[in-house]
Write a structure and sequence with these properties.
This protein has four helices and ten strands. It is an alpha+beta fold. A hairpin with a 4-residue loop joins strand 2 (26-31) and strand 3 (36-42).
């Protein structure tokens, strides 16, 4: 199903800004008690669902960043989470964190950092991810913020 972008005050405010500052990325999701997650991604670093056998699924259904195109449309998707699945939403400062050799942390390292954490709570999983990024990038200056949100689905 498609979702039409709002032509309301928020879009107008983004369009009035200078070209360098008139866009924003966004991930919007609704998690229902039965484990359904409905979401749309507007140019944000794709969140990832990590479940059972360390499988990972990026959540990239959506559209372009907000504020660049008047009347942009966005797709939405609904997926079913299983008990113990972990949703990791992060800024690109996490995946693009660099080590002293210039290598990026990347989505694969995000998945490895949270894989096998079925028995841990969301806060412990978040700590594990941030420690992994800090250890990887030790000694290298970073160019962006590092923001993350972890949600564990429990039936």
């Amino acid at each position: 199903s498609g979702v039409e972008a709002s032509k309301g005050v928020k879009d107008a405010a983004l369009m009035r800004r200078s070209i360098e500052a008139r866009f924003a990325t966004m991930f919007y999701g609704v998690l229902y008690p039965d484990g359904r997650l409905s979401y749309s991604n507007a140019g944000h670093e794709p969140p990832v669902i990590v479940g059972g056998a360390a499988s990972a699924r990026p959540l990239d259904t959506g559209g372009v960043v907000l504020g660049l195109f008047n009347g942009a449309s966005y797709e939405a998707e609904t997926i079913q989470l299983s008990p113990g699945d972990t949703l990791v939403v992060s800024s690109d400062g996490i995946t693009e964190a660099r080590d002293v050799h210039g290598e990026e942390f990347g989505r694969e390292r995000v998945v490895r950092a949270v894989a096998g954490t079925g028995g841990l709570g969301a806060e412990a999983v978040l700590d594990r991810l941030l420690v992994a990024v800090r250890d990887f990038s030790r000694g290298a200056p970073q160019a962006d913020d590092m923001t993350a949100l972890v949600v564990k689905y429990r039936a």
